[in-house]
Amino acid sequence: MPNYRRAYIAGGTYFITQVTYQRQPWLCSKITRTALRTAIETVRQQYPFSIDAFVLLPDHFHCIWTLPSGDSDYSTRLRLIKGYVTKQCGNHLDLPPVVSASRQKRGEQNLWQRRFWEHVIRDEDDFTQHCDYIHYNPVAHGLCQVPQQWEFSSLHRLIVEGMYTADWGMDGKGVEPLSWDGGE
């Protein structure tokens, strides 16, 4: 069994990818979007963090979170968010009921992939590269022609805030792929 090691840096900024179980495409449904938004708001009350970038796709999401100084526990935040969504949506989604023996033993349902991808953002260039990756991801997956067409993205907010130009990514060239396997 692999020895998974995660980087925990207090006050760090983290790129996170969470995938649905067997890549079932349920994340963009209205019930799920509502539950996910409420879960994030609820968790942020007890465990604050800022969301620097976010994109929601049918079978996974990417985000960049910055934690408060002195705090490095992004794993608890993600676990609580996933648990909340599972409780709110699990019985309302039309997902295959098959759950492996391993998942049954752990009391897991069939909504989320067990593990998630995390990467510590190291500097401004790394931050920019991951933000661009997040916001261009719907185009890369063939869900839209230009990033601005994808509704479930922080790109719209970041354009308003002046961090991106209104025509960013419309040239069709895309962005450079990241040099890691982000769970896709």
Automatic annotation (TrEMBL):
SUPFAM superfamilies in the record: Transposase IS200-like
GO function terms (MF aspect): sequence-specific DNA binding; transposase activity
GO biological process, one term: DNA transposition
Source taxon at top rank: Bacteria
SMART domains listed in its UniProt record: Y1_Tnp
Record domain Transposase IS200-like: where: 9-137
InterPro entries, A to Z: RAYT_transposase (IPR052715), Transposase_17 (IPR002686), Transposase_17_sf (IPR036515)
The protein's name: Transposase
